[in-house]
Design goal:
The chain is mostly helical. It is built from 7 helices and no strands. The termini are far apart.
């Protein structure tokens, strides 16, 4: 008698997390094209997950497309308005675009939303570029 082992089908959540892990790894390795593809796939599966928008924004920032990055950081912030990382990313991209006043406002928001010492240090450092 043979036993057949049944494997559960992957859940939408497990697929989303797997794709996110692959995207985040690719981004960290500087493989921007793959990161963008993975984050795009994640958006197809979970369009309201701010992490996909945040990752896509970071990938665009890595390629130098700061306008698109700023827009994607803004979308991420719309889905997760209490994320200091979304505000910081958008401020950084806007600063690179020469939009200092808008960047300063977002730096203020990021500071209000976070107590993370590394994030606050990044805000202070970037404020020095205003």
């Amino acid at each position: 008698m043979t036993h057949i082992q049944h494997c559960a089908a992957p859940t939408l959540s497990s697929v989303r997390e797997s794709v996110y892990a692959s995207a985040f790894t690719a981004l960290g390795l500087g493989n921007t094209a793959d990161a963008q593809r993975y984050f795009g796939l994640m958006l197809a599966v979970a369009p309201f997950d701010y992490r996909a928008w945040l990752g896509l924004a970071a990938a665009c920032e890595q390629t130098g497309d700061c306008r698109l990055a700023a827009n994607f950081y803004g979308v991420a912030s719309d889905f997760e308005p209490r994320s200091a990382y979304c505000k910081l990313g958008q401020a950084r991209a806007l600063l690179k675009l020469g939009e200092s006043a808008n960047a300063a406002t977002l730096f203020d928001e990021a500071e209000r939303l976070s107590e993370d010492p590394s994030l606050l240090a990044a805000v202070r450092q970037l404020r020095g570029e205003l």
